[in-house]
Amino acid sequence: MAHIKLDEGLPGIRGLLAYRPETAAPLSALADVLLHGDHTLTRAEREMIAAYVSALNGCTYCRESHAAIAACHLGGDEAAVASVIRDPERADVSPKLKALLAIAARVQQGGRQVRDEDIARAKAEGATDLEIHDTVLIAAAFCLFNRYVDGLGTWTPEDPAGYRERAAYVAGQGYAGVLRRVAGAPAGGDRG
Question: Which residue ranges form the domains of the chain, and what is each CATH number?
Fold first, then answer.
C-alpha cells in the first residue's frame, strides 16, 4: 500500500503522475527526450540503461517497465534485455553499450564515482560526448525516478503481461503519450 492516497488502478510512477500533474509534465518531458526522442543511441539501448540502473537500485517497477519497453523495441527479445541487466559485460551488446552501462553503474553509485578511465573506455568504443552525457543523465534521472516510486511505496504489479502491454503503448507513443493517458485520471486524494 502506498504511503499516500493514490489511484489504486495506476501502478508505480503512473499513480504519482496522476496525483501531481504539475510535476508529471516536466518528469514525462525529461523521460521522453532521454528515452524516446531522436538519438544516436537506439531507443532499446537507452531503455536498457534505464532498466539496468533501476535493477541496481532495486526498483522492481521501473526495472520491469523499462526492460519490457526495451524488449518491445527489440521485437520482444526479453532474453537479450535480461542478459544486460544480469551481466552487461557478458551480454551480447556492442562494446560501446557495455562501456556506457559501466558509466551508468558508476553514476548509480554516486556521480563522483565516474572515473576518467570510464569515459576514456566509452570514447575508445566510439561513444560521442552526447551519448556519454545522456547516459549519465539517464542514470541520474532513474536514480530519482526509482526513489520517487519506491519512496512513496507505490503499487508494483507482479504479472509480466501487464508490463508487456504497457511497453507496447510506451514504445509507440513515448512518455508524452503516457502523460496524456494519466492526465485524465483523478488525483489520488487530497494533497495536504
Answer: 43-179 (1.20.1290.10)
